[in-house]
Amino acid sequence: MKDTQVAQLLNELESALKAAKLWQPQAPSQAALLSSAPFCCDTLSFSQWLQFIFIEKMRLMIAAKVPLPTSMALLPMAEQSWSAQSEDYTVLLAIVAQLDNTICGVIS
Description:
Residues 5-101 form the YqcC-like domain. InterPro entries: UCP006257, YqcC-like_dom, YqcC-like_sf. With 108 residues, this protein is an all-alpha fold. It has five helices and no strands. Helix 1 (2-19) packs antiparallel against helix 3 (46-63) and helix 1 packs antiparallel against helix 5 (90-104). The longest helix has 18 residues, at 2-19.
């Protein structure tokens, strides 16, 4: 059940990133993807990290039926990353919050 909810939220996140024009048609360089910094913050924007690392990894885990993480806190990074933007990222922030809550087992 949790896998299904997370998969749906990943689809919603992808759609919201596209609607906000944050979805990129080309992947960053392999070197950028291999950063060891949290969220690859030294080589990727948070939106790129979501697209090219987080969403991909979570979808692979669901497909492989590997247990998903039981704890996650992406919302603080999302808020920090998008707070200085002039665009309204309320929908994106809500989806990220739902992902955090679903992974952590918080009923909303």
